[in-house]
Each structure stands twice: as C-alpha cells, then as structure tokens.
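INTERNAL AUDIT FORM
Audit reference: QA-55
Scope: verify that the stored structure record matches its stored sequence.
Auditor: D.O.
Record contents follow.
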Amino acid sequence: MADDFDESNVNPPDDPDAVLRELKNQADYGKLFAATLAKDSTSIDKAVGELTKNRADIDKSEKDYVTGDYLKKFSELRARIDDKWPCLRRVLEENADLADLVIRTFREDILQAGKKLEEITEHLTRAQQELDSRTRELADKQQALKDLLTLPADLVKQLTTMTGLEKRVQDAAQDPTRAFEAYATADEIIRQFEEELFIPTVDEFHRLVFARWGEVVRSQRELAKAQDKVSKLTGKKTTVEQAVKDLSNDRIAELLRRWTSALLRSVTSSPDEERVEEAAEWATSTSP
C-alpha cells in the first residue's frame, strides 16, 4: 500500500530566519513609506495653506474692486476735466499756444531723457561685460606668466622624480624576475619626456618670459581702458537718472517754473520769437 501523501514533503515549512527578515523588511518599508507620506503631507498642507490664503486674498481684492467701482469713478473724473478743458484754455487767451508749447516741450524732454537713460544703460551693460572679459583675460595671462616663472622649480621636482625612476630601472635590470618592471619604468620615463616635459633653451625661456610679460602688460592696459569706460558711463548714467528724477518728481512744479520763465521772456519779445527761442533753449538747457 502506498504511503499517505505528505504535503510537507512538497512545501517544506518556511525558514524562520527568512520569515523574520521578510517581516523586518516589510516593517522598514512601512516606516519609510510612512515617513515619505508624512513629508508629502506636510508639503501638501503647506501648499494648501498658501493656496487658501491666496484664494482669500483674491476674494478680498475682487470685493474691494467691485465696491470701489473704479472704472466709473475714473471715467467721471476724466469727463469733468474734459468739460472744463475748453474753458481753462480760453482763460489763457493769447498765451494758450504758448502754454501748449511749454507742456509739449516738457513732455518731449522727459521722453528724450528716458531714451537717453536707456541708451546709456545699454552701453554700460556692454561695457561691464567687456570689463568682466578683460578681467578674466588678465587673470589668464598672469597665470600663464606665473606658470612659466615657476618652470625652474617645477623642473627640479620633475628631475628628482625621474632620477628616482631611473634608479628603479637600474635596480630592476639587475634582477631577471623584474625585467618587465625595468622595461615598463623606462617606458614611463620616455612617456614623460614626450608628453609632459617642457624644457626650452635659455634663449627660448628668455623670449617666452618677456612675451608673456608683454601680454600681461597689454591686458592690464586694456583692462584699465575698460574700467575707465565703465566709470565714465556710470557717472553719465547717474547724471541722467537724476535729470529724469528731477523732471518727473514734481511735474506740475517743473511746468510752473517753465511757464513763469516763458511769460517773463514774452514780455521783451514777440510771441513768435519767444516761442522759437523758448523751444531752442529748452532743447539745449533742460534736455540731458
């Protein structure tokens, strides 16, 4: 009679140590996963908080905008000014055209000052880029000269190293079992001669030193020019910035100053002559 079927013979019980390791790995993974979830949750909570605050700010801003009814209020203000404008101009009588000229010239001066500032800013940006390039170039030239000036000391170190390698070749050559060591060491010496060593003649060294020194001098001169250019443009930019600020700081006060000047000049000259002279003077004296 056949033996009863024993399932344990097909699926033997798991190794307790293996089960323990598997459970431990699951526990470690669970901890890591939980930590990751906690970190993600913190980030998400922070993002949600920011978005909630943003949403609240948006709601408040929209409410304030609706309550303010700004489009209507500004439109009404503009309409009131447009209604008064013809009357205000009639009060000026024969000086109305002069008033327009004063205002038009003032606006043009501000526009030209702004364009001048943009132009100088562009020039200054390019000059600063050139200065940065010249600074790097000088550093490279100085390093090249320094490397050449330290060549004698470097050659002393290389000679000491290669003399040691030569001694190793000599020692290894005396032992047949070290034949390959002697050959490989000699080959290394040859490689260094061909790939690493730079040993100019005395005359070549002299010419190289003075050539690189000349490059340093020329680079320093170009750097000085670049620095001077940046300095001058910076000064010009500061001047024009101040001019723009002065023109724009209190536009009404500046217009009143120009208007007073225009009226005083009109006392001693005809209206047509005065307008031509005023326009010419403003173009030269008030524009940056």
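Auditor finding: record pair retrieved intact. The mean pLDDT is 83.
Action required: none
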